[in-house]
Amino acid sequence: MKRIIAAILFLMTLGAGTMFADDGYWRGREIRRDEARIEHDRWELRHDLRNGYYGAARYERRELRRDYRELHRDRWDRK
C-alpha cells in the first residue's frame, strides 16, 4: 500500500515539474518576437520619416512605445 501511494505521489510531482518547465522557452520566444517586431517598426518609422509620411510616423512611434513596454514586461517576468 505504501508503495502505491509513493508511486502516485512520485508521478504527480513529475507531472507538475514538466508543466512548469516550458515557461522559460515560451518567454524567450515572446522576447525574440517582440524584438523582431520592434526592429520592423523602427524600419517603418525611418521609411515614413524619409518619405515625409508624418502621420504614419506618429502611428509607428505609438506602436514602438507599446512594443517597448511589452518587451520590458516580458523581460521583467522572466527574472
Q: TL;DR of this structure?
A:
By secondary structure, this protein is mainly alpha-helical.
What does this structure look like?
With 79 residues, the protein is mostly helical. It has one domain (23-78). The chain is 94% helix and 0% strand. The chain contains three helices and no strands. Helix 2 runs antiparallel to helix 3 (54-78). The chain is rod-shaped, with a radius of gyration of 22 Å. The relative contact order is 0.11.
Defining key terms:
mainly alpha; 94% helix; 0% strand; 79 residues
What profile does the largest beta sheet have? Answer: none
**Low-confidence blocks of residues:** none
Distance between the termini: 42 Å
How many discrete domains?
1
**What is the number of E strands?**
0
Oligomer: single chain
Q: Helix-strand pattern, N to C? A: HHH
Tally of contiguous helical segments:
3
Strand content: under 5%
Rounded radius of gyration (Å): 22 Å
Which structural class do you get from the secondary structure elements?
mainly alpha
Share of helix, binned? over 70%
Shape: rod-shaped
Mean pLDDT: 85
Topology summary:
Elements: H1 2-21, H2 23-51, H3 54-78
Helix pairs in contact: 2-3
